[in-house]
Amino acid sequence: MGVILWxxxxxxxxxxxxxxxxxxxxxxxxxNIVIGVVGAVIGGWLxxxxxxxxxxxxxxxxxxVALVGAVVxxxxxxxxxxx
Length: 83
Description:
This protein has helices spanning 3-20, 29-49, 60-82. It is an all-alpha fold. The mean pLDDT is 87. It is a multi-pass membrane protein. This is Transglycosylase.
């Protein structure tokens, strides 16, 4: 994927993940993009650990993989903030 598609994809994934985790009010557009892109990397890594394929392009499967990674990232950040 090109850089522009990663930014758009990251924004969508980060926004949906923040809605699921109820952190949307705390995050802006830039943080949604960062969470989405980093979540895609984490999700791809998790899928490769469990034997699946990682990011395969701009499709529903990749969206779900990135969403799982973004939710995991938000959970870890929330846990670290409490400590």
